[in-house]
Amino acid sequence: MILTAVGRRVYPLLEYQLSGMNPDKMYTASVHFEHVDDKKLRFCKGKYVELLSLEKKEAPRKVQHKSGEKLGSKWMASPVNFEDVRITNKKTREEVDRSNVHLYASHRYLPVLTITEEGGSSYELRLSHTVFITATLYHIDEVCKIKTDSNGYAKSNREDRRRPRAVESSATNPPAKKSRKEARVKIEAVPEAPSIEPANLSTLSFPAAGLFTQTQSSPTIPAVQAFPPADPFNAFSAIPLFNLLNNPYLLAAMGLQFPIPSPGLPATPYSPLTPTSSISPDSQPTQPEDPVKAAVIDKLIEEDADA
After folding, report:
1. Does 245 map to a domain?
2. What CA–CA distance (Å, rounded) separates 246 from 52?
3. pLDDT level of residue 16 (50, 70, 90 thresholds)
4. What CATH number did the domain enclosing 142 receive?
5. How many angstroms separate the CA atoms of 87 and 1, rounded?
6. CA dist 155 to 8, 146, 165, 251, Å?
């Protein structure tokens, strides 16, 4: 018999057919489990080995039949079973549920039926073929299969019964409506960022090397041109001053000629940047002369000449 912390039903059921009772007298029925011996069993190499039990033996807990007190004629009219009895390996479960009985694992127990007659007389019934061994799991596969196939409360049997009922209910019943709260909540999927292969980076529409172009705000300001792609093997090529394709003077200082082959760059060479404005980069902008200041300077020059 399997023991669990919450309590497990005793299966096969303890069911008795009573006879020889006085039909006009009142009787009560109860059941308890007593130790068969003082041995503790250990399953080893396919069989049980007996060891000396060191567990403290307490007075057995009696569980009354749920029908309470009845006439002898009613007790004998139909079989009497104790399907509500549960066995557990947790002592505190007896305080929570009166139908729970605490038993030690790996011990032999014998169910004892007690019939108490009105007036105090009692009779005890022991059936030797109802002796069982408590365990927390099945060690013998044949026993597990027999109990599973014949027990309607087994987990596998409950699942087999649920499957056809679930299919039948889904075919006949419409799907349940969502609550207002669920209907208001809309989960939007976040679009994933598209993956870009490194080989396709040069075909993108943004300027190379992370640089951007600014809009020409005045005709006097030279337009900023897009720089050619940076050399992947030269980190300074992203800076126009150090980009060999834009600075021929740097090339000459290095003793090289333009253009030079560079791995990773397109075959078509880029032309160096040329200013789009008519102002020469070497000339300095001239400021308009002040006529008063110019007259004073001329007068000073004439006085110096006379002196």
Report:
1. no
2. 96
3. very high
4. 2.60.40.820
5. 9
6. 12, 14, 16, 84
H or E stretch covering 155: helix 155-172
Distance CA 201, CA 102 (A): 74
Q: How far apart are the first and last CA of the chain?
A: 136
The backbone torsions φ and ψ at residue 81, rounded to the nearest 5 degrees and listed phi first, read -125, 165
Structure tokens of 51? 């060891």
Buried b (16+ CB within 10 A) or exposed e, 186-203: eeeeeeeeeeeeeeeeee
Question: DSSP alpha helices (H): ranges in 258-307?
Answer: 291-306
Residue 126 falls inside a structural domain: yes
The whole-angstrom separation of Cα 143 and Cα 239 is 82
| Total domains, the chain | 1
Asked whether the CA dihedral 232, 237, 239, 245 is positive or negative, the reply is: negative
Task: Tell me which amino acid residue 35 is.
Answer: H
Q: What is the pLDDT of residues 105-158, one digit of tens each?
A: 999 999 999 999 988 889 999 999 999 999 999 888 888 888 888 887 776 555
Distance CA 88, CA 100 (A): 7
Under 8 Å between Cβ of 227 and 208: yes
Q: Is residue 82 domain-resident? A: yes
What is the extent of the structural domain holding 109? 8-150
pLDDT of residue 149: 86
List the structure tokens of 93: 């479960």
DSSP string, 219-242: TTSPPPPPPPPPPTT-GGGGSGGG
CB contact set of 148 (below 8 Å; sequence gap of 6+): 154, 156, 157
Any bridge partners for residue 124, and if so which? 114
Two structure tokens written together for 130? 């109802």
